[in-house]
Amino acid sequence: MNYVALIVAGLLAAMIGGSALATLTRRQSIVDLAREVGFPTEHLWVLGTVKLAAAAGLCLGLLWWPLGVAAAVGLIAYFTAAVDMHIRTRQRDVAAPIVFLVLATVVSILLVSVNT
């Protein structure tokens, strides 16, 4: 595997894993943000679980690249929806979901390009 793909996928997995833990433990900043964008806070466990599964998929995807691509594509869909929610609700702090969206896109491209 390409070292760049390994580093970027590992970085994204760590970042998503941390975000998953913050979401699952209902960190106050996450709860406040969910309220601001109109997401029901009683369903934060779903978002946390999706993020945790994506982080695991990215890690396992380092061993079997199609799983990593699937996890990255899932994150692209997740963060596209997140960016949309931020924009529709005029929530100003849209940088984080955009960074995650860009990283997930880069990981998917890298994993496919170095393995095909």
TrEMBL record:
Record InterPro entries: DoxX
Topology of the protein relative to the lipid bilayer: Multi-pass membrane protein
Subcellular location: Membrane
Major location (coarse): membrane
Membrane-crossing segments per the record: 52-82, 94-114
Pfam families in alphabetical order: DoxX_2
Assigned keywords, A-Z: Membrane, Transmembrane, Transmembrane helix
Keyword Heme: no
Keyword Amino-acid biosynthesis found: no
Protein name: DoxX family protein
